[in-house]
Write a structure and sequence with these properties.
Helix content: 40-55%
Number of strands: 4
Low-confidence stretches: 1-7, 15-37, 181-193
Mean pLDDT: 77
Number of domains: 1
Largest sheet: 4 strands, antiparallel
Strand order of the largest sheet: 1-2-4-3
Strand content: 5-15%
Order of helices and strands: EEHEEHHH
Radius of gyration: 30 Å
Shape: rod-shaped
Distance between the termini: 53 Å
Structural class: alpha+beta
Number of helices: 4
Length: about 190
């Protein structure tokens, strides 16, 4: 997962490692051929087997990347700000195969509504961890969602303590008004002030 430049959006990114024996480089390139191989039918067979192996690896990787990103999207729902953005590599058959991907998701808190922020944070956390093998960035986004939920809970607690203080002051005013001897109207006005 890669954190996007905007503070209100995070990107969950998949980057699956290159299959064993395959060199990273230009699309469709494999490892360097054995210099002792010589030219002829044996070299052609090796290249064919290598191409077939690379093709199977790319097809498998393509399926894994697409499934990973789809898992993020399925859980993120309307908080996803983009579809899967896939990176491709050209296979030996000339087709493009997904080798990495990312999904952007809105991670901003819900302004003025800590309860909604907590619900949103839980969806973000589940979306980040939805794939069977979450990446390091997926785990970082999940951790950020947990932090966002904790901050919203703290805000709720502050609101409750403010409310309980206000309620306590109101109770004190009510008690004073109840003990007032006949000057109920000024005490009631004071109570509402």
């Amino acid at each position: 997962m890669e954190i996007s430049p905007s503070t209100s959006s995070r990107t969950m990114q998949t980057s699956v490692s290159t299959p064993a024996g395959e060199r990273r480089g230009s699309p469709g390139q494999g490892s360097t051929a054995d210099s002792s191989a010589g030219n002829g039918p044996v070299t052609g067979q090796r290249e064919s087997i290598k191409s077939e192996s690379e093709l199977k690896s790319l097809q498998s990787l393509d399926r894994a990347v697409r499934a990973h990103e789809q898992a993020h999207l399925a859980v993120a729902g309307h908080y996803a700000t983009s579809g899967a953005n896939l990176q491709y590599r050209k296979g030996p058959d000339g087709r493009q195969y997904a080798v990495a991907g990312e999904v952007s998701i809105d991670t901003s808190p819900v302004s003025g509504d800590p309860e909604a922020t907590i619900r949103k944070a839980e969806v973000i956390r589940r979306a980040a961890l939805a794939p069977s093998n979450p990446s390091g960035q997926d785990r970082r986004v999940a951790a950020e969602a947990v932090r966002m939920a904790l901050e919203a809970r703290l805000e709720q607690q502050r609101e409750k303590s403010d409310t309980s203080e206000t309620g306590s002051r109101l109770e004190q005013r009510l008690a004073r008004a109840a003990t007032d001897d006949g000057a109920g109207m000024p005490a009631l006005v004071d109570l509402l002030a």
